[in-house]
């Protein structure tokens, strides 16, 4: 493990020394690919000895409709926030590293059960295996949204450091997957095409990155001005693209002018967990970033059940997805569905299982006899 850490440090030092220009782009691309491979080795060590095993995360059973992780440095108020939002007890104290394991809590919001995880404080160098960083971030990878909790007194420095740690583990915050196609093939060498002018990648750099992964035949086509990092992310394939909210806590300790400066941050929500300021605003923002859809069920001859909606993701919201959320055998007996709501023109409308539902639709499933 120490040798991997040393190799990572050597490459990072060399990248820091190298001037960024057209002549060195090829060399930097190669170094980035080597770095990504070493980082992956850190996350999932192949050897039995050393380094405390793979990043298996904390053993917390996934429950509810979505999972939200609280990530931040020690003593920024994550545990206080968990206590206020969920009523779960997570030890709070004035010293650092009060939380040493992962504490789960549940928020009931708009009929959805949202599991909130209070992860132990991250330290600088977590991506290189320091502290319990590997477990914290392995658990963070299973979340639907990450809340980076920052201290209002030093938010920007912390924000950069945490982003760097999460990026090192292949978590991409508030980014869409790169719009480029990478396809391996059996022969024909490296084929590189692009529909736009490229300032970052050329054929030589693409070949160098591919050869680092021992790929000698592939088609690479770009639809935007991609960087070497984007290409590495697609080849690695284990990247997770996740929405993230920067929760700036302890705003009661700063001036109004400072708050206005912070207000310019994108994806940002100011709160005071201790004084319970703006917690409703934070919940509303979490709901928006989770991008969930509530579907109400209507048993035959009865009124819709508005108390207990079925929660589905906005990316998987067909009638078939809705049936699978209730019971996996339901689709086999499915005949058609009656839908009331904004996704249909008539109320009710008879639809098949491919029909896409909208938030707060009411659905009645008719089974085959």
How would you sum up this structure, described in words?
- It is a single chain.
- The chain is α/β, with parallel strands linked by helices and 369 residues long.
- It has three domains: 2-46 and 178-236, no CATH class; 66-175 and 240-290, Rossmann fold (3-Layer(aba) Sandwich), CATH 3.40.50.300; 293-367, Beta-grasp domain (Ubiquitin-like (UB roll)).
- The chain is built from ten helices and 16 strands.
- It has a six-stranded mixed β-sheet with strand order 2-3-1-4-10-11, with helices on both faces.
- The longest helix is centred in the first third of the chain and has 22 residues, at 22-43.
- The chain starts with a helix and ends with a strand.
C-alpha geometry:
globular
Q: Based on the structure given, which CATH architecture of the largest domain is correct? A: 3-Layer(aba) Sandwich
Indicate the CATH class of the largest domain.
Alpha Beta
| Radius of gyration based on Cα positions | 24 Å
Strand arrangement within the widest β-sheet reads 2-3-1-4-10-11
- What is the number of helical segments per DSSP (H or I, 4+ residues)? 10
The CATH superfamily of the largest domain is known as P-loop containing nucleotide triphosphate hydrolases
Low-confidence stretches: 47-56
Q: Give the end-to-end Cα distance, rounded to a whole number of Å.
A: 61 Å
Domain OBG-type G: 66-291
InterPro entries: Beta-grasp_dom_sf, DRG, G_OBG, GTP-bd, GTP-binding_2, GTP1-OBG_CS, P-loop_NTPase, Small_GTP-bd
Protein name: OBG-type G domain-containing protein
Keywords: GTP-binding, Nucleotide-binding
């Amino acid at each position: 493990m120490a040798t991997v850490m040393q190799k990572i440090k050597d490459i990072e030092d060399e990248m820091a020394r190298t001037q960024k220009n057209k002549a060195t782009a090829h060399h930097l691309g190669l170094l980035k690919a080597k770095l990504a491979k070493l980082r992956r080795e850190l996350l999932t060590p192949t050897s039995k000895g050393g380094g405390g095993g793979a990043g298996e995360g904390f053993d917390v059973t996934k429950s509810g409709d979505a999972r939200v992780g609280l990530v931040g440095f020690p003593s920024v108020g994550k545990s206080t926030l968990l206590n206020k939002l969920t009523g779960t007890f997570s030890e709070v104290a004035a010293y650092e590293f009060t939380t040493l394991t992962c504490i789960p809590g549940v928020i009931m919001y708009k009929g959805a059960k949202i599991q909130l995880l209070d992860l132990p404080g991250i330290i600088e160098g977590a991506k290189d295996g320091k502290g319990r960083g590997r477990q914290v971030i392995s658990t963070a990878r299973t979340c639907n949204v990450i809340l980076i909790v920052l201290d209002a007194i030093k938010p920007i420095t912390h924000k950069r450091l945490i982003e760097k740690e999460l990026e090192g583990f292949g978590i991409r915050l508030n980014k869409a997957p790169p719009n480029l196609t990478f396809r391996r093939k059996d022969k024909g060498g490296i084929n590189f095409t692009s529909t736009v002018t490229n300032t970052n990648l050329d054929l030589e750099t693409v070949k160098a990155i591919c050869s680092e992964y021992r790929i000698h035949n592939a088609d690479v086509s770009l639809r935007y001005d991609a960087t070497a990092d984007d290409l590495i992310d697609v080849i690695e394939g284990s990247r997770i693209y996740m929405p993230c909210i920067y929760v700036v806590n302890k705003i009661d300790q700063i001036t109004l002018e400072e708050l206005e400066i912070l207000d310019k941050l994108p994806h940002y929500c100011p709160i005071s967990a201790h004084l319970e300021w703006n917690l409703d605003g934070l919940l509303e923002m979490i709901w928006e970033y989770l991008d969930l859809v509530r579907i109400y069920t209507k048993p035959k001859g009865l009124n819709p059940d508005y108390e207990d909606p079925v929660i589905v993701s906005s990316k998987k919201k067909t009638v078939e997805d809705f049936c699978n959320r209730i019971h996996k055998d339901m689709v086999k007996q499915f005949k058609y569905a009656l839908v009331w709501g904004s996704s249909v023109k008539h109320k009710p409308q008879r639809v098949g299982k491919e029909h896409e539902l909208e938030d707060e639709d009411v659905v009645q499933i008719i089974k085959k006899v």
